[in-house]
Every structure is written in C-alpha cells, then in structure tokens.
Structure prediction request, 757 residues.
Amino acid sequence: MKTKLRTFGVAAALAGVSPLAFMTPAALAQETGAAPGTEIITVTARRREESLQDVPVSVTAYSGAQLEQIGAQDITVIAQTTPNVTLEVSRGTNTTLTAFIRGIGQQDPVAGFEAGVGLYVDDVYLNRPQAAVLDIFDVERIEVLRGPQGTLYGRNTVGGAVKYVTRRLSDEPTFSARVNVGSYNQFDTILSGSAPLSDTFRVGGAIARYTRDGFGTNLFTGADNYNKDVWAGRISAEFEPNDSIFVRLAYDRVEDSSNPRGGHRLLPGALSGAPVLDNVFDTRAGLDVVRQQVEGEGVSLSADFRLNDMWTLRSITAYREDSSTTPIDFDSLPAADLDVPAIYENEQFSQEFQLLYSGDRMDGIIGFYYLDATASTVFDVLLGTTGTLLSLPGLNAQTFGNVETDTWSVFADFTYDLTPEWSLSVGGRYTHDERSSRVLRRTYIGGFSEFFGGNPTLIQTTSDFEGSESWSDFSPRVSIAYRPSPEHNFYASFSQGFKGGSFDPRGQTSVAVAAGIDVFEFMRFNPETVDAYEAGWKFTGPRYRHALAVFYNDYTDVQVPGSIGQDTTGDGIADTFTGVTTNAGAATIWGVEYEGNLALAEDAFVQGDSWNFNWAVGYINAQYDQFINALGVDVSDTAVVQNTPEWMASGTLAYNVPLAGGDLSVINTLAYRGSYSQFEFVGPLDQDAYTLWNASMVWNSGDGRWQAGLHGRNLTDERYRVSGYDFVTATTLGLEGNLTAFYGDPRTVTATFAYRF
Prediction:
C-alpha cells in the first residue's frame, strides 16, 4: 500500500493535484510513515519507476481514494479540475464520451473516425467512444496526459490520453462495500473483494449497480428523462510465482438500460407550434421503435517477464466489443419530423509487446502494437413531416456504414542521463494504418427500414461505395530536462502526433457524381498531424508544489466531420442529408497550464487540524489559420475551435480535523469554465461561462475501515449545455426548426456509507 500511495503522490504532485488535499493526517501517517514532502516518491508515467522530478510530461492524476472523497460518479467529473480538458456525455446518449484536450478531440462519435484523445483501461486502448463514460469503481487511479502520445503507449493519439487503472489484487483477503443514496432516488451499490488461493495465485472481482430517477420527464411517454440504470462488473485473476513473473487475466462488462435521453428544444415547433418547455430536462420525444440498450465487455491478458536486472518483457493482449441501440429523436417532439433510430456495433483485437530497459544512466522502452477493429453503424433518418409535404409518406434516408481498421506500429523511447543535472529523451514511432469501408445509403418510403421493424419501399440508392486506403507515418519526440537541485526540474520537449485518415460512413456518392467529383476522393479524408512544443517547470517543497507548462501546437489537415441537409429535387426543401468530412483546417493552439498545492499551516499534516489548497488554471488560444468549407472558400476568420474555452480554473480548499476516533474532511471546490462553442462556428447552442460549486464532508475511521460522507454537486443549480443538435443555423432538416440542447447534471446531494477490510 505504501508503494501505491507513493506512486500516486508523485504523479499528482507533478500535476499540481495533491492527494494530501483529500486525506487526513492520521491516514497519511499510517500510509507513508513520514512527513509529506520529505520522502522520495516514484511514478511510472514513462513506463518505468522514476522520481517525480525526472518526468517531462504534463499529467494530472487522481487516486481512487481521492475520487471517493469527492463523491465522483464517472470520469467526466475530473475535467472540472484538469486544465484545458473537456470530458462530456455525447449528445443524445448516456454512455458515449466526447473528449477534447488542448483543443484536439472528436465531437461526432460516428464510425470511421479515430479519437483525438485516447482512452485506456489497464493499458488497453478503447478504439471507439461508445460505452466509454466509465463509472468509477474498483479504480486505483485515473491519469490525464496532455499532448501527443505515441512513443510510450500502444496507440498514437494527437491530443492526449486518459488512463483508467484498476486495482491490483492484494495478497491478503479484502472486501469492501459502498452504498450511495441521494437526490432523484439515487441508490448505488458497489461491492468488491479478493482472496489469495495460494501463495502465487489470487482472484478478485467487483460489481456495481447504479440507479437514479430522471432529472426530468418525457411529457409524451411519461418515462423518466436523464435517468440511470446501469450494471457493471469486473473479475480478475493474478499469477505471480516469483519476483520475475506476473500474469493478470481480467474481464469486465457493463450494461446500460437507462431510458433514451431526450433533448430540450430551444425553439417553438415551426409546424406544430409546440412551446419551449420550462424545465430543460423535460422532453416530448416520441421515437420508440427501438429500446435504448448499451452493452460492452472486454477481456485482457497482461504479463510481465523480468528477463534480468536490466530487461523486462511485457505483453498486453485484449479483445473488446460493444453494442448500442438508441432512438435519437432530433426534433424532441411526438411527430416524426427528424427521427433517427441507430445501432452501433464495435469490436477490436489488440496485441502489444514492450521491451523495457533500465540501466545505470539510460532507461527506455521498445514496443510493437497491433490493432484489428471493426466499427459498424446503421441508422434511419425518418423525415415524416417532410415526406407528407412532398407526397412521399414515410420518407426515410437510411445509412449503413462499416469501417475496418488494420494498423500496426513500432515505437521506442529512451532517456539518457548526460550529467547528474541534465538528461535527454529521444523517441519515435512508425505507424501503418489501413482502412476499408463499405457505405450503403438508400432512400425509402413507407417508414422505418428492416433494421427497425419496418418493411418500406426502396425508391433510390444514393451511395454504394467500397474502398480501402493506407497511410504511413513517422512521429518523433525529443525532450531535455535540467535538474539544478532536488526541488526543481525544468524541461522542454517537441513531439509529433498522427491521427489516421478514413472514409465518411455517411457520405452520399450521388452528390459527388452530380457535381463531377471523384467518388473515392469525395468519400476519403486524410490523416491529421500536430507538431507540439512544450516547456515546463516543476517545483516540490515541504509545503508548496506546482507544475507550470507552456505549450504551442501547429495543427494541420484538421479533420472536420459534419452532415448537412440535402435538397435532391430542387424545391428548396431538404429531403435527405449527406455527410461532409474534409481536412478543412489548419490551426495554431497555444496556452499555459498552472497547477499547484499549498499546505496553509506549517506542520499541518502531522499535528492536529490542517488546511490545504489545490488549484488548476488553464489558458488556451486556439485559432484556425485555414478553414476550407464545402464550397472551397476559406472561412477561417469566422471558424472557431469547438469545446475549447479560453479559460478554465478550479480551486479546492480542504480542511481536515480529528473527530470521534477518526478524521473529518470538509472539501469545497469551485470550477470555472469559460464560454465555448459546440461546433466549428458560433451558434445558438454555444455556452456562456459558468462556475460549479461542489462540496463534500467525509469522515474516515482511524482504522480505515469505515467511511461516511455527504456530497453536494452543482450546489448553485447551474444550467449549462454540454452538447446539442443544430439544424437551423447553417442547414435545415425537418420542418419544425430543430435546435435541441442537452445539459449537465442539476444540483444533487448524495450520502455515502462504506466499509472495507
């Protein structure tokens, strides 16, 4: 346990987020056996154990204990206190993740697009964002790495990575139980335990059940809106016959049966006259041809073999799959003005080998990564009211898209100590990506297609495309670090990021044919790249620590996915839509990040009461230098980088005091997020700046077995948009005027009770 706390402590201090802010003095004395700031702590941020001061990386880390202390429900909450990071639930879903780091990410979760931000679960890369809003249970820590990742990790990502690390099993029997009871009839139960079956073999598992009534109501069906109904579980077995061999087999599964998430209309119905509802969490969505259901599961086998004192061989083998069926009612009205039932199916197999070296003056890694993945999407676009107007009853534009990914890469990264003060790191990655795509788009009358229980009449095939393409890339990385004393570390780095190209699974080839454009070129979009420069200064003292980073990104061939309404008859009414994805942009992104921790009273952590203050500030200037629209015109003067506020800031004040044989922690956090745009152009869905206030009061018993807490989130009950659909500003689809928003959680209060041994 000492090693685990020390590992987290360094990673957190590196980021300016200290675990001390959320732990009591007694707990610290038990875990560390020394006053904070005096011990030597190690971290594995670069795939090897090293001192905090040796890591030239921007990373924010959160331990499982810290997340429990603040009552965190899922991984999106960590974005509130991590600079220049956006983690949100995607529009119209409950479990699909939208992630941006330093202005780079992916808004649209459609198949065929690589993620700008990589999500890892125990070093296994999740290729698709569906089922990726991970609930927090059985977690050792979560790390957020900012900037391109590729020379140290399995899959290259241009924006950064979020790593979800589960707990290793103990060599002694363990058990824990946690119950959460709160607003909107929240009732969660999380159980976990492990046991050694012999000196070399141990097994364990965790199961979690999350339920909550809706924040609002579907006024048409009477069902809850924004409710939660989730099962999640994980089992694992570990084999460790000696100090040189460690093998872990793990399986996890999640089932989300929450109701469809209906949006809030911002405009009265242009056709029906339906008024705007008072409660932003209420809806009138009427699409019900399929039931909302999300299932995801995966199995992984990881093994470490220590070959000798210098070399270790690591293997990570994994298979994952998920399936999502969802009724997306774009118009959020009973009528079928713009109704989209959809099915997403994803599967992936990955294999990674790492050869790690540790010598007197040099440490490093050599790796190989392989991924074979398939992402399929099928959805109907029922334009019922439009079809009636055009005498095409049950007008339906159906899309089937399948994208297969076959990619491999080799990478290496080594650090050499030039002198006791200076070290040089050099790395590189060669990536070969191949994409194969099948896109079939058909227009029907008579309602929903066979995938959603219908039997319509085919009137037109608008896309019938098959194609494949491959790309190769070499991405280098270099950094230099200067440590004039144990308290200070200065570093500068350069790295390149690469995000593979693909084909638009919503592209309409008939549009290309009519315009005289090559169909293959119309459907394909090329890779995007980023040149990232960073300089930083880290300081660690007995009462104060900080991480300061300045970065500059030259972002080129930016992939911009989207869809627009299409008028195929020339009557001025959009009777279908088409996907439009281009390498439209080049952007310059630079900014500053400052995170820190201050103990407000001397000897605060070893004697009596204590005060501790954490902060995180992020500034980012993100501008398009070029943005070519569908007409071939550069509109960079009006384009904006989406989901990227100029300013983000948070401050957490924690007070710890001995109480009733244990320790009481009172934690207050204010999280500010500046105004930002939902899309690449300013529009009515954009969100003004807002501040969230979260507070927790948690008591831990002196022996560490019992915990009771009270957690309030969004205590001022702010209403803030996290996503939406806009089919009125740049393009029109449907007749009702479809401008729909989705919102972050309202004020909630949760009581927690936990027992562990």
In short: Confidence is low (pLDDT under 50) at residues 1-43. Residues 71 and 711 are 6 Å apart (CA to CA). The chain has one domain: 2-756. The first strand starts at residue 42 and ends at 43.
